[in-house]
Specification:
With 79 residues, the chain is an all-alpha fold. 49% of the residues lie in helices and 0% in strands. It has four helices and no strands. It has helices at 2-19, 37-40, 52-55, 65-77. The longest helix has 18 residues, at 2-19.
């Protein structure tokens, strides 16, 4: 029983180690490197999200007077 258990354990260890092998001809794939300008520049036609004046009262586009009143109250009392 002990010998069979030792053989099973050795086979499991060998199987586990061989599962991590990539092969002798492994070549790392090329990944494109993007410049940082793609992350920091606002695309043409978009509003800069860091400029709150440029965004304007977006809640008015819903056309809901209750939402407009709630936002007005929130802005008025947020001092």
């Amino acid at each position: 029983m002990q010998k069979a258990l030792a053989i099973c354990f050795a086979l499991l260890v060998a199987l586990g180690i061989s599962g991590c092998m990539l092969g002798p001809d492994y070549a790392r794939p090329e990944t494109p490197a993007y410049g940082t300008e793609a992350f920091f520049n606002t695309p043409a036609g978009w509003v800069d999200p860091n400029n709150p004046r440029a965004i304007g009262p977006w809640w008015e586009s819903f056309g809901d007077p209750v939402t407009a009143e709630l936002v007005r109250l929130a802005l008025e009392n947020n001092k």
